[in-house]
């Protein structure tokens, strides 16, 4: 059935105007100031007066059903994408992680099995390459042909996911030939390993030492090294979950001084939380044990300014939930055994609106740009996704900028026994969400069926 959205304020990365949107089937048929003359009989009329009409959010960094550190992330593709949709995210890109010694095709097949028939949002994959050699290189053209046009590597997690600089350099050169983008977890894995062993040897086992074992300078160093490798290979990199000024400084320098493009992503937790979370009593700090860890208020300010000035193009979530009880407590006596990651897939737009737009740190257009348009552009989905324009998929968020609420694990849709943002006050929330023209969220109720989500075959990067 067609849908006629009228009276709302349409917000794209470049424009803000009161206008109307006509949805026909799964796509946007028209956008204009008065579409009454072309609305088909029987169309559902949606009064969006007082609401923002924005492109559905795209979260390019999620870990659903991820086997990691002796357990699995607690959301699967059904629960995780329902939570995403409730927060205004209509597409995700998850990481299909190669097991060491196995092929990337096996990893991709596994992730297709995890997602198909379960996801409610559309979904794509990055392949995380943990073991690179000639055999894996020969698989990559086929992977790109399947629409998996980005690969991820870890410069941390020594002994499990980490690859070395030589492998990374060779992979960058392969990616260049294929038009694939390399995402990088930038932290100095060798130093983390040394510091972790040192602290544990001194009997320092609490979550605070996770933070101390992951210094910002080590993240900055790895970011700098990744940029150097990227310059030598003549191919850009995309730095994931950037947490600190040390890293941003290198991205800024590369862009301004060396005229070499580096894409950067940060996440809400690095924008609104500070390192005092690790000083909470007892084992509570484990809720925020993630890599990189939460940094300082000065880092928060630097990241906001990085977004405002275009050095950070994407805000994703790195949603990687583990229950506090039964999962995080695997590391009760040893911080190195606390599964790394935290929930946040539902909170991204709401936090960015409340603490970014309303506090004057970013504009409404930048809000849309970093949550939808840039992710679509950078990862080969634009203009099918990431904008409100004729011919684009009708992934639309009707965002109520006045709605007040408070984040709590009780009213979150994720499958995790805590929220990383418990007690955060919000102003602004999705009132309705359409995915390819179908209601996913309407009047606060989840409407979408399990398995509605489709695999996103993405274009190679230009
Ligand atoms: O701590 C985190 N970030 N867990 C998820 C895996 C990763 O490094 O992205
Ligand atoms: Zn990472
Ligand atoms: Zn991650």
Question: What do these coordinates show?
Answer:
There is one protein chain. The chain has 462 residues and is an alpha/beta fold. It has two domains: 87 residues, Roll (Urease, subunit C, domain 1), CATH 2.30.40.10; 323 residues, TIM Barrel (Alpha-Beta Barrel). The chain has twelve helices and 19 strands. The strands form three sheets. Strands 1, 2, 3, 4, 5, 16, 17, 18 and 19 form a nine-stranded mixed β-sheet that branches. Strand 2 and strand 3 form a beta hairpin. Helix 3 runs parallel beside helix 4, helix 7 runs parallel beside helix 8 and helix 8 packs parallel to helix 10. The longest helix has 18 residues. The protein is globular. One zinc ion (ZN) binds next to loops.
Question: What attributes characterize this protein structure?
Answer:
12 helices; binds zinc ion; 462 residues; Urease, subunit C, domain 1; nine-stranded mixed β-sheet; alpha/beta; TIM Barrel
Distance between the termini: 36 Å
Specify the overall morphology: globular
Q: Identify the CATH architecture of the largest domain.
A: Alpha-Beta Barrel
CATH superfamily of the largest domain: Metal-dependent hydrolases
The CATH topology of the largest domain, please?
TIM Barrel
Question: What is the count of structural domains?
Answer: 2
**Global mean pLDDT:** 98
Low-confidence runs: none
Helix fraction bin:
25-40%
């Amino acid at each position: 059935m067609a849908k006629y959205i009228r009276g709302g304020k349409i917000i794209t990365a470049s424009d803000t105007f009161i206008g109307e949107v006509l949805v026909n089937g799964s796509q946007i048929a028209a956008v204009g100031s008065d579409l009454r003359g072309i609305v088909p009989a029987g169309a559902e009329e949606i009064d969006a007066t007082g609401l923002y009409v924005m492109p559905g959010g795209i979260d390019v960094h999620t870990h659903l059903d991820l086997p990691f550190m002796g357990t699995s992330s607690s959301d699967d593709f059904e629960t995780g994408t329902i939570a995403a949709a409730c927060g205004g995210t209509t597409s995700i890109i998850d990481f299909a992680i190669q097991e060491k010694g196995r092929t990337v095709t096996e990893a991709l097949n596994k992730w297709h099995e995890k997602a198909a028939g379960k996801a409610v949002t559309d979904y794509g994959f990055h392949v995380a390459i943990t073991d690179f050699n000639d055999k894996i290189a020969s698989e990559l053209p086929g992977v790109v042909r399947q629409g998996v046009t980005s690969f991820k590597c870890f410069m941390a997690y020594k002994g499990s996911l980490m690859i070395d600089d030589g492998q990374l350099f060779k992979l960058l050169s392969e990616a260049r030939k294929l038009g694939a983008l390399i995402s990088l977890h930038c932290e100095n894995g060798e130093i983390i390993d040394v510091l972790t062993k040192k602290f544990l040897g001194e009997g320092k086992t609490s979550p605070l030492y996770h933070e101390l074992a992951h210094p910002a300078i080590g993240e900055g160093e790895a970011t700098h090294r990744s940029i150097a490798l990227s310059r030598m290979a003549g191919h850009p990199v995309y730095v994931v979950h950037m947490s600190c000024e040390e890293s941003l400084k290198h991205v800024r320098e590369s862009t301004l001084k060396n005229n070499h493009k580096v894409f950067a992503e940060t996440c809400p937790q690095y924008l609104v939380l500070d390192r005092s979370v690790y000083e909470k009593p007892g084992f509570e700090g484990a809720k925020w044990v993630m890599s990189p860890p939460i940094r300082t208020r000065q880092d928060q300010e630097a990241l906001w300014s990085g977004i405002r000035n275009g050095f950070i193009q994407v805000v994703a979530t790195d949603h990687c939930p583990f229950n506090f009880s039964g999962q995080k407590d695997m590391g009760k006596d040893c911080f190195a055994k606390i599964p790394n990651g935290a929930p946040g897939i539902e909170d991204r737009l709401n936090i960015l609106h409340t603490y970014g737009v309303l506090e004057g740190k970013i504009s409404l257009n930048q809000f849309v740009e970093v949550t939808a348009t840039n992710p679509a552009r950078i990862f080969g989905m634009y203009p099918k996704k990431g904008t409100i324009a004729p011919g684009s998929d009708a992934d639309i968020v009707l965002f109520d900028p006045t709605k007040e609420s408070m984040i709590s694990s009780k009213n979150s849709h994720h499958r995790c026994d805590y929220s990383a943002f418990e007690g955060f006050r919000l102003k602004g929330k999705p009132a309705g969400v359409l995915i390819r023209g179908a209601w996913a969220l309407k009047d606060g109720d989840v409407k979408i069926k399990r398995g509605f989500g489709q695999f996103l075959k993405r274009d190679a990067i230009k």
